[in-house]
Design goal:
This protein has 188 residues and is an alpha+beta fold. It has a single domain, classed as VC0467-like. It has 5 helices and 10 strands. Strands 1, 2, 3, 4, 5, 6, 7, 8, 9 and 10 form a 10-stranded mixed β-sheet that branches. A hairpin with a 2-residue loop joins β2 and β3. The chain is globular, with a radius of gyration of 17 Å. The protein starts with 9 loop residues before the first strand and ends in a 15-residue tail after the last helix.
Amino acid sequence: METLGSLKNHFLIAMPGLDDPFFERSVTYICEHNDNGAMGLIINHPVEISVEDLLAKVEIIVPLTNQQLGKPVYAGGPLARDRGFVLHTADLQWRNSIILSDDLAITTSKDILKDIGQGLTPNDFLLTLGYSGWEAGQLESELAENSWLIIPADNDILFRTPSNQRWQKALNKLGIEPWQLVADVGHS
């Protein structure tokens, strides 16, 4: 198998044949990918809780409701589902912010949640509970099995496309319509 470069700052688009209900029709933003494995956040599977509801659950007082607080929270993956991850534009940074690209960062510290509750938000953000992870070589094997398609990350899909349209829009960036995909793919 040829060596794959880092997929950091790319989307993984689940193929119809991916046999894992957690990743069905998912789009996953890859935060890190190196020789030790990969870490990402599913960006299109909302859970039945808003940002404002989550802030209340972690006892962050919200003085005024604003439109940003009505955003959904997403199931970022099957790992550490009790832990929050905020994927956001890098115009603002917090104590534990990690810069992912020229314009994106991820923050896991509670101080970003407090600021969001006070209305101090980055230009765009997405909050997930949990993350997706792959051990060394695991993602490469899944790619060889045709479980995923790959495209560079796109902030329009990430922040401005409704979550129920992100999978299709990501496919469209490749020039593919969902009906063109089949669940079983052969290897020659």
